[in-house]
Amino acid sequence: MVESLALAAHARRWAKTITKITGKAVDSLDLADYEPVPEVQGLSDTWWPGRDSLIAVYRGEAIGLDAPRCLEAHVYSGLDEWGLHGG
């Protein structure tokens, strides 16, 4: 959990744009060219780095409350090497 919060803070700081996607639209994200970040891969949060972006998929509330409308993803775009990996 702490890793996910730290990654979110870092991504928010360095992303040029942040797009929030909710509900069923999250399932339409094409993650074929992404690999999950093992340190933050879990039931509630999963992070996916790409060439110049990070995608965070938050399923915790949707699963825990049986509320699909709570499914959410944040796409952090416009990241450079520092934004993707830090120091």
Beta-strand percent range: 25-35%
The number of domains: 1
The helix tally amounts to 3
Q: What is the residue-averaged pLDDT?
A: 85
- Alpha-carbon Rg, integer: 12 Å
Count of individual beta strands: 4
The quaternary state of the protein chains shown equals: single chain
What is the gist of this entry?
By secondary structure, this protein is α+β, with helices and mostly antiparallel strands. Helix content is 26%, strand content 26%. The protein has one domain.
Task: List its salient traits.
alpha+beta, 4 strands, four-stranded antiparallel sheet, single chain, 87 residues
Reconstruct the topology from this structure.
Elements: H1 2-14, E1 17-22, E2 45-49, E3 53-58, H2 60-64, E4 72-77, H3 81-85
Task: Describe the protein's architecture and organization.
The protein is an alpha+beta fold and 87 residues long. 26% of the residues lie in helices and 26% in strands. The chain has a four-stranded antiparallel β-sheet. Strand 2 (45-49) and strand 3 form a beta hairpin. The protein is globular and about 35 Å long. The model has no long low-confidence stretch (mean pLDDT 85).
